Amino acid sequence: MKPIQVGLLGIGTVGSGVFNVLARNQEEIRRRAGRGIEIACVADLDMARARSIVGEQTRVVGDARELIANPDIDIVVELIGGYGIARQLVLEAIAAGKHVVTANKALLAVHGEEIFKAAHDKGVVVAFEAAVAGGIPIIKALREGLSANQIQWVAGIINGTTNFILSEMRDKGLDFDVVLKEAQRLGYAEADPTFDIEGVDAAHKATIMSAIAFGIPVQFDKAYVEGITKLSGADIKYAEQLGYRIKLLGITKRTDKGVELRVHPSLVPAKRLIANVEGAMNAVVVHGDAVGTTLYYGKGAGSEPTASAVIADLVDITRLIEADPTHRVPPLAFQSHTLGAAGQELPVLPMAEVVTSYYLRIRVADQAGVLAKITGLLAGANISIDALLQREADEVGGEGSMQTDLIILTHDTREGGMDAALAQIQALPTVLAPITRIRKEELN
Predict the structure, then answer these.
(1) DSSP assignment of 313-349
(2) Which CATH number fits domain 355-440: 3.50.50.60, 3.40.50.300, 3.40.50.261, 3.30.70.260?
(3) S-S: 10 plus which of 79, 113, 225, 293, CB 3.0-4.6 Å?
């Protein structure tokens, strides 16, 4: 049987990994897929560099549309990234009747509804295992392996750059700015690290996982996104003393009122496995009603780990390429005609309606009655305290002016209620600095 013909749009880090792994494991992949899978054409603006990677046997073009128009290409792999030209090329490939594999989480989180509808109407597949958590097969686990379950929640370390930074801050006692520069020097962080450190990259991935877990449309615009730029070494140290570690988590939960979809730093009990995921590694915890809690761990980025996920999609499409489109696995797990109804039943909740617990660090004047006033305001807002730590006072500014940090852990409360209580506390004359608030996730 003739091998499946694949066209690569972009042959950078991931594209070269796809080419190399396909070549190295060609026979193993053929045995799994039932027929060969070949890179027949590569489109890249830097044609000389592309040629140096693929050699003389593979066609190289500088125009992506020339590749898409080639009638011999069965599957187009989009590895360009971003929202702009990538969206246009993916839609053109679908219109041309090509199946599409992409690692582009940003594209799917923002334009997924348009792309999936176009693919459904044309009867082609859009596969995207590599878009979330690199080499970890979390999409397949959520979409197929756990399909018997009503998923309750998903929580993941899904950005390696931020996890590396937080690990270094904890291990070396350094502040964020210092570790970011080191991460950039080592190549873990981009020259412009905004998408990573502000939580946007993780939110793209969490949006996709939420849609698959709960059968709702992709709704990145409704995600709450908070990065790690305001974290200090002091907070990481205090969290350790209380038995927690701080991780940037992408979280989505099913509640009676709707779906939570949020990315932010979180205190996680140190005894949880996910709290011990260090460096640039990724991990995702999924809780289903039948299976309980499951953990998926591995490399979330890199040439060959991501290529592993891309090629897994190529194998899946190859196995089913002749199948009736109605017999294929839906891209978002649920049959497309059910997504609208599910979306109406499960709205994405505004952050003010989210219920969770909190870590608070409050810099106060070391005076009698300060603690009582703060705890009184929390009690008045029906916020109960789980633990309280008062640090030894230190002199600031001379003349006997003593200040201290109050560290408070709360029980679960609604975010909107916490916002109102913190506004009252911040207005106290004895509160001397902006209050640090970090959400706490027990992940039971």
Answers:
(1) HHHHHHHHTTS-GGGSPPTTSS-HHHHHHHHHHSPBP
(2) 3.30.70.260
(3) 79
